[in-house]
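Figure 6 in text form: structure in, sequence out.
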């Protein structure tokens, strides 16, 4: 491509709303333009890089034996009502109506669509297992879109879905997808961390995220330095620890009866610790949560639960949501807290609480001689014994794991990093096939429900993450596999001998299969050089009268350029390109 035939529109400064490197550089390099809040369009250079990422994904999935298809982006609401997610998906899902008044969905994800399409053609066990995928547009009405294409409202996802006869098939499909993901990200020059993750609104059992370390990451990763344990903080578990008293010794059970004590104007754990001359580990903190669409029968007050946890710990709302099979959980309003506990906020406790079921974190059941809220203003209970003075409706791990906690697998001490999710894989089981009545006939002619796996990669987010990982103060440093153009030829002036050599190199490189751009614009050399660094072409060839018959060849990642005879430059550069691609593809 010649620069005069494409659109190169660089900016000296990034827009004010661009706060992370990828957003700033994609805007400054002219890769994207903003059309609306959370809505970004790819310009020609950006689309070239986008297609490189997309094609690597497609190649590796095809090599893994998956089959590409293209469902519609607009879906009928009926299939979402079948699955039960019409109400559960929440405000992120855009729900237009067609001219006939039929409810529709602008696809935020595609489990329902793939399941419905497979249902119409699946009849025999002989057809299973198989995996289908798409690379298609999605829309989620993010309340706070940010970071450019990293978290936009409209985006492109690769979704793959395996349909399997049994758990053994699903395990094999899941591992096949995981291996393909590792190859995909390696080919792009990205180092990923594979972590255990929460299944969220997708449902299912097993779940794994492929993360890249990032200072501006949306996710917190909990990692063990001694073994391979890695998890998103939403999913991370730690070894149970024993609550200690103010002397640092394990708490001891008491035979004293529960006693009310006045605690005037004392609400927080810190205030209570000072007032009672003890530590936070002696308190059972009780929080009232409102639950949306619980899949667990919580009794007559199905919308609220009281969650108890040790005073020095915090509730992990993702774990709580998964435990209750709910679409969402949130702290109850002050009015609801008063109604359920008969006390102001700060005095909730599990003893004698009857208006909401009690969910106890595992930490609570190892505690003794505890302090809890007294269900009255300015009152707390002391000498509370879990199991004696209250019996939880459910006991589970609902704590937030943090650095310093102990690895449950090897006993190492956890540390944390920030990360961005690029890909996510799930073992969905029969969540969708059962609710949507998908069946096939097994070897004995019996009707059986297949099980599913789900595998996703955010194409836009992956592209942005490449820039986050590969840039400097001058601009982007593309990997050879994802650059919009692998080589830029920059004649100091596009005329006479310089034009003749530049044109010759351009034709030679094209013939050698190199993706090359010739900057034939009538611009000052400094402008062309700055644009080349900002856009981030991996190799720049400068053709100038001063160096002819040699040309200057510079890698974007290198400090210095090399002088090479113009007659040898095309082959030398093509070899550099091939060698770099071979490293990424190895």
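Output sequence:
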């Amino acid at each position: 491509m010649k620069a005069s035939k494409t659109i190169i529109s660089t900016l000296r400064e990034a827009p004010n709303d661009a706060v992370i490197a990828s957003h700033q550089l994609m805007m400054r390099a002219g890769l994207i333009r903003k059309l609306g809040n959370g809505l970004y369009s790819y310009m020609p250079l950006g689309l070239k890089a986008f297609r490189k990422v997309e094609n690597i994904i497609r190649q590796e999935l095809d090599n893994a034996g998956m089959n590409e298809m293209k469902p519609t982006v607009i879906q009928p609401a009926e299939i979402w009502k079948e699955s039960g997610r019409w109400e559960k998906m929440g405000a992120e899902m855009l729900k237009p109506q067609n001219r006939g008044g039929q409810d529709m969905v602008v696809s935020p994800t595609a489990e329902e669509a793939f399941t419905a399409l497979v249902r119409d053609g699946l009849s025999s066990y002989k057809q299973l297992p198989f995996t289908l995928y798409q690379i298609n547009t999605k829309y989620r009405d993010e309340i706070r879109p940010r970071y450019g294409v990293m978290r936009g409202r409209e985006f492109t996802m690769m979704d793959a879905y395996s349909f399997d006869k049994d758990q053994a098939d699903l395990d094999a499909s899941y591992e096949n997808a995981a291996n393909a993901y590792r190859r995909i990200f390696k080919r792009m020059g990205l180092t990923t961390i594979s972590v255990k993750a929460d299944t969220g609104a997708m449902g299912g059992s097993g779940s794994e995220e492929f993360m890249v370390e990032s200072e501006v990451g949306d996710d917190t990763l909990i990692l063990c330095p001694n073994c391979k344990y890695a998890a998103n903080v939403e999913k991370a578990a730690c070894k149970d620890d024993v609550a200690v008293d103010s002397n640092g010794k394990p708490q001891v059970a008491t035979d004293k009866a529960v006693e009310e004590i006045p605690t005037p104007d004392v609400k927080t754990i810190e205030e209570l610790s000072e007032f009672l001359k003890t530590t936070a580990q002696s308190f059972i903190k009780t929080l009232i949560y409102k639950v949306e669409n619980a899949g667990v029968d919580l009794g007559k007050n199905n919308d609220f639960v009281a969650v108890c946890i040790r005073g020095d710990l915090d509730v992990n709302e993702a774990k709580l949501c998964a435990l209750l099979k709910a679409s969402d959980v949130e702290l109850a309003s002050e009015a609801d807290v008063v109604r359920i506990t008969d006390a102001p906020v700060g005095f909730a406790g599990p003893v004698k609480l009857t208006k909401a079921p009690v969910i106890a974190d595992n930490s609570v059941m190892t505690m003794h001689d505890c302090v809890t809220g007294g269900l009255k203003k300015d009152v707390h209970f002391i000498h509370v014994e879990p199991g004696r003075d209250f019996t939880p409706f459910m006991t589970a791990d609902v704590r937030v794991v943090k650095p310093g906690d102990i690895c449950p697998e090897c006993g190492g001490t956890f540390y944390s990093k920030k990360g961005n999710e690029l890909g996510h894989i799930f073992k969905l089981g029969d969540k969708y096939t059962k609710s949507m009545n998908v069946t096939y006939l097994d070897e004995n002619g019996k009707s059986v429900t297949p099980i599913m796996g789900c595998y996703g990669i955010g194409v836009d987010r992956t592209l942005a993450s490449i820039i986050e990982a590969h840039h400097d103060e001058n601009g982007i440093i593309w990997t050879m596999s994802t650059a919009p153009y692998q080589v830029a030829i920059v004649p100091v002036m596009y005329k006479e001998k310089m034009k003749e050599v530049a044109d010759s190199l351009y034709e030679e490189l094209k013939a050698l299969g190199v993706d090359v751009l010739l900057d034939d614009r009538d611009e000052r050399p400094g402008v062309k050089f700055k644009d080349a660094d900002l856009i981030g072409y991996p190799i720049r060839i400068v053709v100038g009268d001063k160096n002819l018959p040699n040309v200057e060849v510079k890698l974007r990642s290198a400090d210095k350029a090399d002088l090479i005879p113009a007659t040898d430059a095309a082959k030398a550069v093509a070899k550099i390109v091939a060698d770099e691609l071979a490293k990424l593809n190895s």
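Caption detail: The chain is about 25% helix and 25% strand.
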